[in-house]
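Hey, I was hoping to borrow your eyes for a little while. I've been staring at a protein lately and its backbone has me curious. You're getting the sequence in one-letter code plus the fold written as tokens. Would you mind checking whether the tokens look sensible for this chain? Here's the protein in full, and shout if anything looks odd to you:
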Amino acid sequence: MKNPVPQAASLLLEKLMLLVHVRPLLAGSGGETPPPAPGYYDTSCFKRGDLLEVPRTLFIHFGIYLGENRVAHLMPDILPALTGDRRQIQQVVTNKRLILGVIARTASVRVDTVEDFAYGGSILVNHMDRLFEDQVLGSEEAARRAEKLVGATAYSLLWNNCEHFVTYCRYGAPVSLQTDKFCETVKMIIRDQRSVLASVLVGLASIVCLGLAPSTTLATIFIPFFLWMAG
């Protein structure tokens, strides 16, 4: 039987990562908020090969600037698995397409305008360079890598997401720091859970083997349990 912990962690991450990309809905209309008009962002400070970040509520969306108001970025999308019509695929990804893409683990590296890529969010430029300063590739090399990958691709929130795409393009190795951070958090939760279970087992053993007062032992068992549940 497979260990359910990695599967549960992957499922939780998938649900959380949806919040990165799902666009806000118009209040009471059921329609999607339109992207900002062209020219909303000042692209004069962007250079070809720049790594662009758009912070969201829980996570960050990434892309590689190609010049002329174009950004290559990896997006979950079911449509490339259903049709080869480039005109349909190139339309802005709807929430339905995105969610089905996550479920089916399909995506595409697509080229959109800066406005469509950022969707109203603030943009950070080359913010990750400070972490990979010895690995930064040339700007033209980064842009060419991104352009070569444009098209349909497999998708995994843990192993092949938008951050893996841009770090491969700009730093030569696909990594995802936000995925690593999430996995560390899950490990901490699992360790805490094991500590609580160990406390419960020790308390029960003390009743059987040491003859301690049940009221004292039960307090030892359940106080950490309730503290863990409250946290």
Residues 192-230 form one domain. The chain has two domains: 50-175, 192-230. The first helix runs from residue 4 to 21. The mean pLDDT is 78.
